[in-house]
Amino acid sequence: MAMTDPTPDDLPTDEPEDGPEGDAQDGDGASPIPCSYRSALATSGPWRLRAILKELGVDPGRRSLGLDEALAEHLDAPSTVGRILDALGPEPHQAFGLFSRTETPVWPAVALGEALLGLGVDPARALDRPLALGLVAPMPAPDGPDDQLFPLVPGRIPGLRFVAHPAALESTRIRPPLGDGPATLGEPARLVRESDGLEPVLRLAALWQLADAAPLKRTRQGDLYKRDRQRLDEDPALAGPIADVLRPVDDPVSRWLNLARSVGLLLDEPDSDRIVSAPSEFWGEHGVHLPQMIAARWLGGGDLRLGPAADPGSSLALRIASLLALASAGEDDWFLLEELATWLGARMHPPAPAESKPERRKGRPEPPPPDDPMLDALHAALLGPAYLLGLVRVGESGPGGLPAVQLSPRGRYVLGLGPPPPPPPRIEQFLFVQPNFEIVAYRQGMNPALIGRLSRFARWEQLGSALTLRLNSDSIDRGLASGLSAGEIRDWLGKHAVRPLPDGVSGAIDTWAGRRDRLTYFSSATLIEFGSPSELEEALADWPEGPSSPPMRVADRVLLVEDEGAIPFKRFRLAGARDYRRPPETCVGVGADGVSLSADPARGDLFVEAELSRFADLDPDTPADALRRRYVVSPESLRRASAEGMTAASLSQWYAHRTGGKIPPAVRLIARLVDLEGEGLPPPLKADRPLLLRAPDPEILDGLLQHPDTRPLLGDRLGPTAAVVRSVDPAALRDALRRLGVRLDLD
To answer: In what ranges is there compositional bias, type Acidic residues (predicted)?
Structure first.
């Protein structure tokens, strides 16, 4: 009998089933680059930190160490940053406004420079004083005093980022561009379209459900494993076509994933390679404001994967610069998209003096060519995500139907230039609950809070003008785990359904909830494993009565005891104990034949036999009451393991953890024969007179010389891949190899 004491918080996890090498999908699930204000200061040289402290009126002394901490502590003092900001001009305030509106303390340098140019601000004038006062830190920092940060042009300082002090983001507001804005249309646009802004929320809700069902895994490079990426790409709700779209979004799944992580709907699990879903409380706390949170993260590039040397340039700067340009006129004014591209291009990419052309005195600005990259980037930004987020309205103007745009009330609110947009008309009944457990929801009655509520207990299936969801046992279990009751789910569906809830649906919800209610959760418990079911029955019969709860039978040989103090240890002979808060131990022995395995009960745990049963079969000759049970690996057992998802890499890791060694040659032979490694079946073996067996490689021959079925039939080894066959008649060897799944060819 072995006694174990598991805690459910720290159970062993399996190795990722797809290897990290050559299997990652570029652009998916990359971990954000560690870049904080203090880490940026830590990269600064002493010469720069001394200069900043002197500029702030702080004597740095003669020390060279700890200057970054001294500067951070000085700026962290209450109202210090506020007093410094009050003394700065409007240009630095525009720079801090970009940080504040995008809710990110880190901006790529080139993109920040182009955004400031689009606002009519010289980047050097906007950032020079904040850099000198330490409110903005470059990362990586310049190597010496003579290194110049400006001008912020592509390729000059690869990967340069500016990191703002967090306190500087809390008290700054952004303003529309300085100077004359782009020309407006003299008449309203026609065929106006405006999105409801729910599409990103719906896609992120579907992604949240997928991560809640099974966490996503990252490789060492930060990308998603192939299997997880394929699961996202094949989900109809997440990756399906968007109903109301003007410009298709490139690689939408990766963008939804990055946005979900940037708003906190998906979380990087600490000390792990997993991306997990946020608790269901997220929807109650942030559901109402989720569209604004997504829009702010999008403005700051939260949907982009920016590596250490990545430079998004105009693709990021255009987002906020174009929206602020639309805010420079009245709320009813429209702008031609081509003219807006010309105006922004002239500001963000001004021509050199020798290339400048005289301004046209009359008429509107000359439109850019159709293949102009600025016009294409503006189309991608405003007609794509900005439209889906509900930040702009889009219409047509002129006889040619040229695209025109207008900033929506939601867009002004996201920029901090207007009040919250008015809520849509409230529709109470917007659901059709079908007897087949399918739910049809109309978008007109939806809002982010209701989307979050539905996501807790119904599975998203299709997203379009009409939304379809499905109720099943897993979705109801998720709703119950989030704190809802079966009655609350029924009442909520009945309140918003057009017709009464079908009896079958109501009964199924109660049935599924009843199954979950039969589960019992123990925060801690002790499991006692007996050698046989009869020993367990004898222990139950002799168990002393007391105030503690009696033991529970959880398997034919396992008892669960909630109170460890109630265990009559004097009546038992303990073979070993196990604390499941510790990592798994080496506790499995490998037999001389290579295919037999047995666990040591003194060092093992309750998971060993479950792990063994995945790829090995219990030896029928093992006595039923034996504590040390013998398992045998066979081609059938490894084929079963392969069908259940086991790979050669996970099997190798199991042997390393549980046996302390490598996979035996006999098991590696069987793995090759069942193609567990995915490299294809080995070629047939060959035997010739005087009956020499030749294998395709030494590894195959090693396994045959060790395996119990073939070892008696082979004699001396004549080389790395050849051995003598003991009998002149190869029939016995052919039969043994056939049982292993190998064909023997005679030359």
So the answer is: 7-26
Q: What is the pLDDT of residues 411-469, one digit of tens each?
A: 999 998 889 988 888 889 999 999 999 999 998 899 999 999 999 999 999 998 889 99
Q: Rounded distance, CA 103 to CA 300, Å?
A: 7
Structure-token pair, residue 551: 């033991």
User: Which of residues 133 and 728 earns the better pLDDT score?
Assistant: 133
**pLDDT tens-digit readout, 707-721:** 999 999 999 898 899
- Peptide bond preceding 140 in cis form (omega within 30 of 0): yes
Side chain identity at residue 513, one-letter code? A
Say how far apart CA 623 and CA 173 lie, in whole Å.
Answer: 78
Query: 10 Å Cβ neighbour count for 454?
Result: 25
How many Cβ atoms sit within 10 Å of the Cβ of residue 621? 7
CA distance linking residue 662 with residue 307, whole number of Å: 37
Are 321 and 407 in contact by the 8 Å Cβ rule? The answer is no
- The predicted structure's pLDDT at residue 143: 80
SS3 of 630-692? EEECCHHHHHHHHHCCCCHHHHHHHHHHHCCCCCCHHHHHHHHHCCCCCCCCCCCEEEECCCE
Phi, psi of 13 (to 5 degrees): -120, 150
Question: Is 90 exceeded by the pLDDT of residue 315?
Answer: no
Q: What are phi and psi of 714, to 5 degrees?
A: -115, 145
The answer to whether the beta carbons of residues 387 and 395 sit under 8 Å apart is no
Q: Give residue-wise pLDDT tens across range 147-167.
A: 888 888 877 777 888 999 988
Q: How many residues does the chain have?
A: 747
Residues in CB range of 613: below 8 A, 6 or more apart: 631
CB 244 within 8 A of CB 195: yes
> Is it true that the peptide bond before 584 is cis, omega within 30 degrees of 0?
no
Indicate the burial class of 743 (C-beta count within 10 angstroms; 0-12, 13-18, 19 or more): exposed
Q: 3-class SS at 341?
A: helix
Q: 334 and 189 in contact (C-beta within 8 Å)?
A: yes
At 696 the three-state DSSP class reads coil
